[in-house]
Model the fold of this input.
Amino acid sequence: MGDVTVRTPERREQGVPHPVTDETGQGLLRRLRAPRRPRLWFEILLIAISYWTYSLVRNAVPEQRGQALRNADWIWRVEQQLGIAVEQSVNHAVNSVTWLVVGMNYYYATLHFVVTLGVLVWLYRSHPGRYAATRLVLFATTGVALVGYYLYPLAPPRLMNGGNFIDTVLVHDTWGSMASGDLKNMSNQYAAMPSMHIGWSVWSGLTIFALASVPWVRVLGLVYPALTLVVIVATANHFWLDAVGGVLCLGFGYAVAFAWYRALPHALPRDVARVGERRRAWSPIRA
Done:
């Protein structure tokens, strides 16, 4: 009489697949976090809509002139107490050198957009695996800045009462600020805190420094936000402390990206796995 193999309840349990509800939920979250190759048409549309929304919301913030001027006076007093209120001296010194201040006016008007878009294009082409995370940093930074414009209206130095600052755009008849001259009605003049010129330039600089392979390009990544800081102060568009606000917003942006991707953007893989490989990597594991 042959031996009879009896399947015990324990053995039968081993043959039953484990519940996949939790694993499937976790797998879905991991799939959402997994870097994907960006689609050009979608990115162009997303960036265009995002910037349009940013401009619309920023300019829709009520221009609280009285409060903005009071806040500017307070910022100026605080900087004087801290011994860092040198904006006026820098503004007057640069204004005395025409070619320099005119160059700074155009720098303020153009590089803010050109460099930021250039870094996004470079990421899209050369670092697709890091693109979405780095873009998320930029979007989160800009989003929280809008909250700052609502909660803390602030006049730039050139609009202070009795501040004796020089509006370099008006004096030299150049195009360098959306809040000066004929363009002033197109932009909220009392949204100086935080400075997104600093938020975006530090984002660009850190991204270049972390990911560029050519040493002198990495150095330029660090020089760019430093030069931007000088420009926004010299043209009397911002206080030093506006720059601090921009850096704090950027820190929030990196925190959002880290919370979602569980890593800083530069630590993610440079390339994106192929669709088949990604499916296998994220498919639920059954016993």
Remarks:
- Residues 98-126 form the longest helix (29 residues).
